[in-house]
Structures are given as C-alpha cells and as structure tokens.
Amino acid sequence: MGEIENLPYKEKRYPYHNAYLDYWKKSISNIEEFWDLKARDLVWYKTWDNVLDSSNPPFYRWFVGAQTNINLNTLDRWQNTLIFNKVAYYWEGEDGVSRVITYRDLFKEVNKFSKALIDLGVKENDTVTIYLPMIPELPISMLSVTRIGAIHSVVFSGFSAEALSTRIVDAKSKVLITADSYPRNGKPIELKKNVESAIKLAKDQGVEVEKVIVVKRSGLPIPFIEGRDYWYHELVNKYSDSIYVKPVARKSDDVLFILYTSGTTGKPKGIMHSVGGYMTYVYHAFKWNWDIRPEDVHWTFADVGWITGHTYIVYGPLMHGATEVMYEGAPVYPAPDRAWSIVEKYKVTILYTSPTTLRLLRQYGDEFVNKHDLSTLRILGTVGEPINPDVWEWYFNVVGKGKCPIVDTWWMTETSASMIAPSPHLGLVPLKPGSATYPLPGIEPDVLDDNGNQTPPGVKGYLVIKKPWPGMPLGIWGDPERFVKTYFGKYQGIFYAGDYAVKDEEGYFWLLGRADEVLKVAGHRIGTIEMEDALIKHPSVAEAAVIGMPDPVKGEVPIAAVVLKSGVNPSNELKKELIEVVRNTIGPIATPQAIIFVRKLPKTRSGKIMRRVLKAILTNGIVGDTSTLEDPTSVDELKRAWDEFKLSMK
Ligand code: WTA
Q: Could you tell me which of 14, 139, 181, 638 has the fewest CB atoms within 10 Å of its CB?
C-alpha cells in the first residue's frame, strides 16, 4: 500500500467531490427510483410496468413490459433535428482513405441494409454473425440487425477461422456478414478465406451457414460462391434512398446481442445483453464518462469486435448524437505518430484507449506526440487493464499537456459499460494516478474476502457488484447454469467480477488484475484454458499449462509449459508447430511468447495444475506453500527447464 499512499494527485480543480458522494449515495439507496428516472431520457414505444423484476435472481429483468428498439435512440430520434446533418463517423482507413458519414447517411444506409436482410429472409430473434474489420459497414450491420429485431454476434476480425466457427456453431447462425480482405500493418488479412474454412468447420458440427454477405473493402480476388454469397453493395443498391424499415418493437428484456468472451473453461461464453437494460445503462455511462457536448469529437481507439467498441464506438456515441472517429488500422502504421495525426486531423476532443496502446505509443518517444497539435483534446480515457501510474502521468502531461482529466474506466464485457470511473463533469472526483476512483451513480461495488466480508482499507480482495444494474447480462447464451455459477456462485446474490481489487482509506478503488485463469494480453481477454485446450490437440502434447508473464508493453503475455508424450523429443520445429496451433485455434492475439518443455507440471493431489506455482517460478517470485503438491520435485524440474530456456535465449 505504501506505493499507493504516496500517489495522491495534487490538483485543486475538483471542488464538488461531496456533491458526487451525496448523489451516489442517494442513487444506490433506491435503485429502482434512480433507473426509472434515467430510462426516461430515452425513447420507448411503450414504457415499463415495472422497473426491475427480481423474482428469479440472478436473472434480473429490467423495465419489464416496456418495448423499444435501440435504433429509435441511435438514429430515428435524430430525424428532424440538427443532429441529422451532423457527422456520425469520421472513418479513416489504414491505407489513408477516409469517409465522412452523417447521421442522415447512416440512417439511409441502415434502412437499406435492414430491408436487404429482411428480403434475404432474416427474421426477428435470428442470430447473425458479423465478422468484419473496422469499416463503417460494421456499425451499419449491427444497427440493421437490431433494427429488424435480430440478434448480432460480432466476432473480432483478428480471430482465426476455428474461433469463428466455434462462435457460429454456438450461436447457430445461418447468416454471416464479412468482407473480402483488409489491410493491417500494410499487409492484407484475408478474411473471406478464413470464412470459407470456418463454414466448413461449422458444417462438420451441424451448423450450415446459408447466406454470406461480403463487403468489398480491398477488392482483392476472393472465393465467391454463387447462390450462397452476396455482395453487400449489390444488395443495398437495389433500394432507393427513401426506403424506410420501421424498427421492430422489442421487449426490454429481449436479447439485443451476444458477445463471446473468455472465461475459466475452454469454451467462450456468449454474454447476452438486453434491449432496454443495455440501452439505458450505456446511455447513462457514456454521458457520465465524457460529459459529452454537441461539439465534441470522440475517438475510441479500440476495435468494435470487443465490448469497448460495441459500447463506445457504436451504441454510446450514436445515442448521444455524438461525432465518433473510427480508425481501421494499426496504431503505429505507417509511422509512430499515426494516432496523433488522427487526433490533429479530426480535432479530437476526447480520446479513449487502452494502457497497452499508450505504452506502445510512449516507447517511440515524446517527439512523435509533440509533432502534432493536440490542443483540441479535453478528456483522456483508458480501459481494459490497470494503468501504471507512470503511464498515467505520461498520458496526463505529454498527451494532455496537464489540462485533460484522465478517465480510467473499469468494466468488462458482462457489465455493458464502465462501472468504476471518475466523471470529468464539473470535476466531481479528485484523481489518483492508477485508480479508477469511484463507482458510477447507481452502481455499488465492494471488495470482499473469501468469506464474503468486506476487506479493510488497503487489503486486497475480490471485486463484486452488490446490486443489480440495467447493463447486467441476461445470461450466457444456451448455458444458464454457467451464468449462475460463474458470477453468482462465489457469493450468494452478489455479482463476482473475477478481478482483484483494493479500496484505500478514502474509498478509491484500485484494480489489480484478474483473479482467475483469464489473461489480458495487450488488453485482449484470453482464457489460459482455451490455449491449453489448443495445445493438447497437437498429437505430441500430453499436457500443457499456460500462464501470463508480465510484459512492459502488452501488460502480460502467455507462456506455455508443455509436457510431451513419451518418446517425443523436444525441438524448435515442434515449438513453432505448437505456436501455430494456438494461432490457428484462437488467433494471432494469443500467440505464446515462449514454449518451455518440461517433464512434469506442478499439480495438486487431485490432479489440478497449480498455475500459481508455475507463475511464481516463471516470474521469479516466491513459490510459497507447496505442501499440497503431489510431487514437489516438479518445482525443481520447472526451475531447471526455465533456467535452460533463459540460457537458450541469450
Ligand atoms: C480488466 C473490457 C483495470 C479487468 C472493457 C476486467 C481493467 C477485464 C480496467 C474485462 C481498468 C478493464 N483497470 N482493469 N480500467 N478495465 N479491466 O471483458 O481485469 O475485455 O475484468 O472488457 O479487463 O475485460 P473485457
């Protein structure tokens, strides 16, 4: 705690702290009253009979009896207002091409594509998988799917064919929206090729993709199957600009979308978010985070394939009639100042990105930042991992020139939008570098020990959310039991986030990373068990254990300890093959940093791999209590293999 105590941020610009505390206390004293009021900021076809139905916990249902469609609040609402002529997206391709899309353009395009989807036979509650790069057709597809009452499942375009097929099969998606290929670091990524493999794999598992809609992004040749594949531009060009599709009235507790995320088993979880609850919570959080103003240019530098993009590139900004920047490419391509040139070009006022991106940009030196006029910036946000106080200071001083508050937002796929974050509005919360500060109004987090008791200030425990909130998930697609067990199994009736946290004397929350078998590699959430399952598919592998190793840029990187089957000799060739297996099963984001061959793994007597011991050895920590180990010599074996590995790297 010493380190934390030494960090109070000495700024005298925050006079309204008590006002925030009073407002927050009031908000959680009667959450139904609070959310009832918040939801009235939005447009509904029919309002609710009941704010919250708690009759079947933890399956809480929000705004019961209400009907709406998120398109009413992102698009239709802005017709006949000044916002209709405003820029919704400044899109910038990695190769330097750009597009400016107004709310009016977006409305037209979404109506056309909605009609095209209906004509292709997509019905309410069908699941549509979207596997697109960061191009405007991605938000257009999401809005069109939800407009007609279908459910989207967006799969990050960096995932492999196999990862895509798993998600298609789980969601039983018969329609897929994709693109030909797109540039990444100047090289084409052949998305459609992945799609072909994924469709074959899905078919083997009994799910046939019947229709594939292809957006032409690069124009490079692709496999195209007549009768199954459709060009996006040919579909939408069939309709006139005045075509109108009425947004389908959805029940508040219908599924808006599914988004797969990693957990503590090999199978990703399809997190289901609700129509009315997600909409209300995201609207509220976006407003709280950014104190958004009509003239703002907001840039979330993240991918729509993750929850950050769903909420802070698509639904959040559009519900506020805000202007969003959408950048397709890699952060430092073709030069280390790409991000800063985008801030300057579009006069970005609010920049939101991950600590990994900041660490990467910082390592090239301040001159790349200083080359550009960043004077339009007024707020800087961060998300996805704990931010190191020195990176926080760099962001504050070098990027923000000491005049922009840092909004560190803690949240997760399951929560819909940020849960713990300061509001820059009127300077409600004094900042401390490295702390996400305080909860949003309506949210009651806490830090508990293993027995469910609140930990004293400064003592590490598990982060929980004590009361339901509108952005909570409806459940896990097809697996209600897993939902109950994962989030409400550790503490009765309380949402368990899976993060370590500590509260300081002043009630500030400090997030300390995942408490389970989940890694955050460059901000991407990856399950160690997913990687282990991939490794043991290789015929030479008997057992595998993956842990996260601290990394100065990516936060952590995966390292795999592998036991080979008897008779198989370790070799560099085999290492390469194993790395390929992981890349092909999950995607390049999960590439192991190192593979170490060992003869045995540290295990408990019941056969559970002790990742804690493994991690301690590999990060040169203290191994701690090994009395529960089945075979204590496994520790020496690991040390030996690790030393050998380090020597081989010299
Ligand atoms: C981590 C990303 C510290 C955390 C929106 C959480 C953070 C996981 C922060 C969810 C933050 C997110 N400080 N840690 N500001 N924001 N995390 O589902 O471990 O991809 O559990 O959602 O990211 O990752 P996910």
A: 14
Taking 90 as the threshold, does the pLDDT of residue 108 lie above it?
A: yes
Q: Which CATH class is domain 536-648?
A: alpha beta
Which residue owns the Cα nearest ligand 1 atom 5? 412
- What distance in angstroms lies between residue 384's CA and the mean position of ligand 1's atoms? 4
* pLDDT of amino acid 264: 85
- If you write DSSP's letter for every residue of 439-455 in order, what string do you get? BPTT--EEEE-TTSPBP
**CATH superfamily of the 1-443 domain:** ANL, N-terminal domain (3.40.50.12780)
**For range 155-170, the mean pLDDT:** 97
DSSP code of residue 56: S
Q: Where are the domains of the chain?
A: 1-443, 536-648
Q: What is the mean pLDDT of the chain?
A: 94
How does DSSP classify residue 425?
A: G
Whole-structure pTM value: 0.95
Q: How far apart are alpha carbons 264 and 496 in whole angstroms?
A: 13
Q: Which residue has the tokens 């139905």?
A: 53
Contact call for residues 374 and 399 (beta carbons, < 8 A): yes
Distance CA 488, CA 493 (A): 6
Phi and psi of 202, rounded to 5°? -65, -40
DSSP 160-191: -HHHHHHHHHHHT--EEEEES-EEETTEEE-H
pLDDT confidence of residue 45: 98
Residue nearest to atom 25 of ligand 1 (CA): 412
* β partners of residue 270: 260
